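[agent] plan:
  1. take the single chain provided in the ticket
  2. run structure prediction with default settings
  3. attach structure tokens to the ticket
  4. add a short note for the reviewer (M.T.)
[agent] executing step 1
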Amino acid sequence: MGPTYATRSFTQVLGAGGFSLGTGEIVVNRTADVPTSAMRSDDEVIMFVVHESVHHMDFRLAASTDLERYKTEFRAYWMDGRYGPPNSPTCPGAPAGCYSTAYDPAMAPPGPKSPRARVIFDHLYGSASYPFVRPAYDNNTGGFREQVDNYLIPDGINLSASGRLDALRSLIEGWSGVDFPAFRIQVQAFMGVGPAPAAGVLTADERDDISHERAWRDLVERKVTDPTQQSQIKGDLRIHV
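[agent] step 2 finished; step 3 output follows
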């Protein structure tokens, strides 16, 4: 407010709580209502920071198609925890606003047949902030409806917004195809083989994420095209999807 208000403000989607500016900066709107000075709670601010952090580190073709735009929003809403613990399929204690990830064939359309996936879909489908979702789904543009209905669990390159995973992604993404032995040593270092990389060795949870995420398989297959070398890197990272 005051003399810095005009120079430190910008217009964006009405009512939105946070933004990733694409410059490494994340902005969260702490004031929910200016006339009443109503402020968001610390927990809500943290939720928005997590949401935007996932966006910032989500390198899975995030804006190339309507489907990928949907998926990157789905991943961010899943990981910010508003609909349930990101790493748990159930809701211990059944708190209000928490949804199971279990497949439920009895759920009526439209949308995916899982409570947590459905509540995220309903939000994106009905929100003015994502105007592309409803027409793409209703018209099944490019198979959008089938893809969305089958997207029950998020799959991404760095859902936990880890600096270590981001450093490994950057290493693989930036490999030029030259000096594979040296490149492989750098990859192995993240898995605890040899001297630790500057970003640190991956945790057990981060290694498990890599082994189960199709996004990491796709990244390795795109950057390491020699079949033998590709198989070695997949083995080093324990990718088996």
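[agent] step 4 note for reviewer: The beta strands are 18-20, 26-28, 31-33, 38-39.
[agent] ticket updated
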